[in-house]
Every structure is written in C-alpha cells, then in structure tokens.
Model the fold of this input.
Amino acid sequence: MTKTVLKEIFPFKILMYQDEGYWISHCLELDLIIEAKTTETQAESEIVDIIAVHLRYGFENDNLKYMYHPAPLSDWIKFSKCSNRSTVTYQRDSITIDGISFIPVIELTKCIIDCKEVA
Done:
C-alpha cells in the first residue's frame, strides 16, 4: 500500500536578539525560547529543531489541543513594531499518523530587534 505524503506548512513568528554574547530566539506562538552562544544562524537552527520536536510530540501523542501557548502580549507588540523581518522555510522528517505521512514545513517569519527593546 502506498503511503500518502503531504506537506503541511506551519507558520511561526520568531523574535530574535543578541544579549551579552548570546543569541536569543523566541517562538511567539509556542512561547519557546532558546539561547545560543554562537551565531544568529545557530540560534535560528536550534529554535527550528525545538519547534519540530514540539510539533512531532503534539501529533504523535494526540496533544494538539495543548500545543500552542502564546507568548506574552508585550512580545507580540515588539514583533508587530519590527521592520527588520524575513521569512525562511525548513523541512523536517515526516510524521505518520493513522497511516498518513506528512512533512512539516516550518515557516519562520523572524524579526531581529535590539536587546534594548526587550526590557
């Protein structure tokens, strides 16, 4: 039997900033935060990995109802005021539920702000 493979796009907004040598990435829809001591690119890669794990867990454990936990309103306002936005997409390993496979495509709209705007 041939498996059905679909691509599903999951859009997320990411607030990024550098603070004391660390890059911080904050996924606003899931209120997930990571910090990377290396580069902006590494911080972006790590937040995508965490989002992918979060999505996989939600689907594989029938836990979609509790998957989204929005960030505080103040962070959404910072994002809405940001003019330095870009969108990138990442494809992750397929997830199979009830015999149907789909490939999660994580679409990030990222905004890089000055750390002074975070406080």
The longest helix spans residues 40-60. The mean pLDDT is 88. Residues 4-117 form one domain.
